[in-house]
């Protein structure tokens, strides 16, 4: 466990330095960008070590794993981000433990998320980011809303009980220059803020492209392998 802690500490320090350098290069303050460590496929013991090293925000992709891990680590006071694809039949369950849902990309998810949020102990609201597709026009969207649908989707979230619209999330398309993708994202965000001025968060950038995301306005970066190492092979 001591060796694993040292490994995580070194990787975490390296990622934090990358964020700091990228912020300086973009003329931004180091505190402008929050780190969400993605722990998909890694054990709860790693989450505990990360919390001990000062990590406050943890991201998960899969509902079953996320639900179990959040329950096991409930004593740590972490902020749990659900960043994976949402299924309408599981959205309510996700909203019961996730403090932030970063992957809302269609209107049919708003109702289930709202119901789940209203069932949370203490009545805490769930923060929501709209996932927007950065795929070229005409391409098959892996995930994410069409940019033209963002404003109306944001209105639906604003009207839903238990949900708080916070901003946008995106993933740079495979095989494309992430800087180009994040340039387009910055334009989408600018237009979105005209209609939703309070939704200022932008979750973009991962282990391989966080610098480009920060240069184009990301307020949160989602980093997994650069902190935790290669993902364990799932049997």
Distance between the termini: 23 Å
Element-level helix/strand string: HEHEHEHEHEHEHEHEH
Helicity level, as a percent range? 40-55%
- The number of strands is 8
Task: Label the structural class.
Answer: alpha/beta
As residue ranges, the low-confidence spans are: none
The mean pLDDT is 95
Radius of gyration: 17 Å
Beta-strand portion reads 15-25%
Sheet with most strands: strand arrangement: 7-6-5-4-3-2-1-8
In this structure, how is the largest beta sheet organized?
8 strands, parallel
What coarse outline follows from CA principal-axis ratios? globular
Number of helices: 9
Question: How does this model look, in words?
Answer:
- The protein is 41% helix and 16% strand.
- It is globular.
- Helix 4 (91-97) runs parallel beside helix 5 (110-118).
- With 235 residues, the chain is an alpha/beta fold.
- Strands 7-6-5-4-3-2-1-8 form an eight-stranded parallel sheet.
Overview in brief:
41% of the residues lie in helices and 16% in strands. The chain has helices at residues 2-25, 44-52, 63-72, 91-97, 110-118, 150-159, 178-195, 210-215, 225-228; strands spanning 34-38, 57-60, 79-82, 100-104, 126-131, 163-169, 201-203, 220-223.
Keywords, separated by commas or semicolons:
8-stranded parallel beta sheet, 9 helices, 41% helix, 235 residues, 16% strand, alpha/beta
